[in-house]
Amino acid sequence: MSVTSPTAAGSREPGGVDQAAFTALVAPLRRELHAHCYRMLGSVHDADDALQDTLLRAWRGLPGFQGRGSLRSWLYTVATRVCLDAVAGRARRPLPVDLGPASPHAVPDSRPDRDVAWLEPYPDAGLAAVPVAPDARYEQRESVELAFVAAVQHLPGNQRAALLLFDVLGYSAAEIAAMMSTSTTSVNSALARARRVLAARLPAVTQQRTLRALDDARLREIVVRYATALEDGDAEALVALLTEDVTWSMPPMPHWYRGIGAVLDFARSGPLGPCGSWRHLPVGANGQPALAAYLRRTGSGPYLPWSITVLTLRDGRIAELTSFLDVDQFAAFGLPAELPPGPGQAGPPDGDPTGTRA
């Protein structure tokens, strides 16, 4: 998740803006701007591009800014407009649960759907420590939770912008109207519609509230027990961690599963089956506990990246497993490209941990 300097081609542009001075000026805001772009677009890679475009436009337009108002507000204006341009005419980024009903049993012939631009996870390491604005409804980590970002993707661009600028960043309707070149009435209307959509889609309790109710030892225990269950191929140990209505989805696989029976049927045919041996590294994603899974298909050799699984918890159990089967995400999380050989239960090299034949 790196964004290069917008001025790599030269040190000065219109108005004689110095590259080093501009870079130092915007450096404290880069991480929070990147997170804003992610909330708008649902993709780390798209957020990288949007931030790059934002900084380029801002650098070129800095002479016209002339210190009128807040630099932070001006950069958010530029970033929001960049994201609105990107959203226009583009399909939203979904999760499998958004596209169809759950499968009651493992689907052996499922294929990854590469035609869908799926929602992507966001590394916690990229989150800036931004104080909650007095009028904001959501804290920073709440506003990158999977459920929140997935719900935002159901909004048209103007509603996304109004909601994020008002309820996450704490700008007033008048300020947002100026940022979006529209009227306060239009902003308030977009905000009301966006809030209705989110109210229908978000759980009653955020993950941040759920995590605060768990002490560190209990949270660590859940994560370790989940990883151990997969590494040991232990179905009973896995089931003991799950809620009765647990869901498991694996973008870009279109099929997903709901309930202990369906999830266990899938798990036995896939990750708990004869696919190889697993190792896991704990990571933080979307303000939630997550694990990077590495798979070794044969009895020797390194473990290679397979998925990043984000855990959604409820009442001390796992209510949702969202496994992102995109190994390109590992670089964004700063994860190693492989893990050295170690203890594990190797299985036949032709097994498939998704329970599919990809």
Walk me through what this model shows.
Belongs to the sigma-70 factor family. ECF subfamily. Residues 336-358 are annotated as: Disordered. This protein is of the alpha+beta class and 358 residues long. The chain folds into three domains: 13-90, RNA polymerase sigma factor, region 2, helix turn helix motif (Rna Polymerase Sigma Factor, Chain: A, Orthogonal Bundle), CATH 1.10.1740.10; 146-203, Orthogonal Bundle (Arc Repressor Mutant, subunit A), CATH 1.10.10; 209-332, Nuclear Transport Factor 2, Chain: A (Roll), CATH 3.10.450.50. 41% of the residues lie in helices and 13% in strands. The protein is built from 13 helices and six strands. The chain has helices at 19-26, 30-41, 44-65, 71-87, 146-152, 157-168, 173-180, 184-201, 207-212, 216-232, 235-239, 260-269, 329-332; strands at residues 242-249, 256-258, 277-285, 288-296, 304-314, 317-324. A six-stranded mixed beta sheet has the order 2-1-6-5-4-3. The model is unreliable at 7-12, 344-351 and 354-358 (pLDDT under 50).
